[in-house]
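Researcher: Please translate sequence to structure tokens.
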Amino acid sequence: MNLPDMKRWLPLGLILLGVALGLYALFGASDEDRIRERLDQLADAVRVDDGERNPIVRHGRIRQEFAEIFTKEASVVAPEIGEGLHGRDALSAAATQVATVYQSAHVSWGGVAIRIEPGGLGAEVAATATITGSRHGHPLRRDDRSVKLRLEEIDGDWKILSATVERGSGPDLNDL
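Model: Translation complete:
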């Protein structure tokens, strides 16, 4: 094939490649893969770093991310928050305020165990969340927490319905 012919076919080839990648993203990823991607999106959404100090900007970003991650009526229970948090707006507000206490914070997931319910409309996840961060003026600290999540598939997207955060190590699907 000569150069003028290649130039003519290159855009078509790129379009076909884009369509193929889009179809894979839409249909090729398993439910477990999509749930793991949702967990990674959550970890990224709540991170605290030096680049984002404006609470209004942080809150706007978190609200947008949480609209994709959580159902509107989502709830979180953790030892530090007493009665827990109910509703996506409350979760967004709490995640925004983390930056007032922490100079840096990063969440990573380990030991992720996923159980998809028969029919594929719900899932339970047990995992260990490792939070690495430092409060303003304090040294870096690492904390491992057992986390249990309940997710629902809504219009083809997995969203978190509830999360329970505990002190302890490692997930156990038998406890779900």
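Researcher: Any highlights?
Model: The beta strands are 70-77, 85-86, 102-116, 122-135, 141-154, 157-167.
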